[in-house]
Amino acid sequence: MRKEFRIRPAKHDDLEALCALRRASILATTRTTFTKAELHAWAALDTVGALRGRIDDRCTLIAESTDNLQASIGLQLDSREILALFVLPTAQGHGLGRTMVTAIEKLAVQFGLLELKLSTAETVIDFYRTCGYQICKNASLQPHPRTGLMAMEMRRHFPHRQTRFGRIIAALHQQLGISPDYGYRFRLKLQPECAHPVSIGEDVFSRTQNLSPQAARAWHAMRNAAATDGVELQVVSGLRSVDYQTGIIRAKLDKGQNLSQILKVSAAPGYSEHHSGRALDVNTPGFEPLEEEFENSQAFRWLMDSAGKFGFGLSYPKNNRHGIAYEPWHWCLL
Ligand SMILES: [Zn+2]
């Protein structure tokens, strides 16, 4: 009987269960050309370090049923590669593997990736063929760089998975001279524009600001809780459209600024969390908006302690994995 699964990005709390799933799947492999010793050596490889990075990128997906993890699959942004599809032996034969491959392709498209490669054992080549993957030109079975086991390199191009929004943004980036690898190089996902924005009142410049309904509710609750603790949180900026973000980039280009410098401080249109209505820039009286000194405010300390309780997180901390400048004022509903 087919079980019900929920597919979601893995969190750090899932690491132990993920490693157990990986070990169980490897050791229970029966249709294989590998020896028992090779399977044991593979199962014993320490992958926690590699998994951690992908969890930070939300690029490991897991399928869970009510009782435990049933499958996992990873996307490696740097090498544009599918890593480690594991399906528990008891969950095999119901199409879950193929569902996981589709899910990781849909995730890849959100980073602007329209092609992925993978290295797979000989006995799994046919499975990937049914998922649309083809053996790379001139490829042959070669020792896998991580496992040392013989593997074949396969590849699939899936432009049909690109969304309409993704196509519009790709064309816009071409006009602006932004490289097609922007999304996965900066580890940023496309951020479709919020469909139903609601007002959250005026910002520090007396402009009306909007957020998504869910973010607006969370923001009001957070601002009220801060006020109860004697901390005033002000809005500097909320929802921003793709057109608005494009205007920011064009104005900087017109002033003669270099595109790579601009993209360190301003997200490319289509990839700003502000489009989604989930992000807002925050300030407090006595501080200049959008300045790093905000980190010295009582408001920033309060946010670092309490914003998580309302679902908000700091998107660009110091030395963040995106290579984007530190933004202590930018908070996003996770
Ligand atoms: Zn911001």
Question: Can you describe this structure?
Answer:
This protein is an alpha+beta fold. The protein folds into two domains: 6-161, Aminopeptidase; 179-333, Muramoyl-pentapeptide Carboxypeptidase, domain 2 (2-Layer Sandwich), CATH 3.30.1380. It has helices at 15-27, 36-44, 48-56, 96-110, 125-130, 164-176, 182-185, 213-228, 242-254, 259-265, 298-306; strands spanning 6-9, 60-64, 69-76, 81-87, 115-120, 134-135, 142-143, 150-157, 198-202, 208-211, 234-237, 279-283, 312-314, 330-333. The strands form four sheets. Strands 1-2-3-4 form a four-stranded antiparallel beta sheet, sandwiched between helices. Strands 5, 6, 7 and 8 form a four-stranded antiparallel beta sheet that branches. A four-stranded antiparallel beta sheet has the order 11-12-14-13. A hairpin with a 4-residue loop joins β3 and β4 (81-87). The model has no long low-confidence stretch (mean pLDDT 93). Bound molecules: zinc ion (ZN). Residues 274, 279, 281, 330 line the site of zinc ion (ZN).
CATH H-level name of the largest domain... which superfamily? Gcn5-related N-acetyltransferase (GNAT)
Summarize the main sheet. 4 strands, antiparallel
Question: What is the number of E strands?
Answer: 14
Q: What share of residues are in beta strands?
A: 15-25%
Task: Give the topology, please.
Elements: E1 6-9, H1 15-27, H2 36-44, H3 48-56, E2 60-64, E3 69-76, E4 81-87, H4 96-110, E5 115-120, H5 125-130, E6 134-135, E7 142-143, E8 150-157, H6 164-176, H7 182-185, E9 198-202, E10 208-211, H8 213-228, E11 234-237, H9 242-254, H10 259-265, E12 279-283, H11 298-306, E13 312-314, E14 330-333
Antiparallel strand pairs: 1-2, 2-3, 3-4, 5-8, 6-8, 7-8, 9-10, 11-12, 12-14, 13-14
Helix pairs in contact: 1-2
The protein binds zinc ion (ZN).
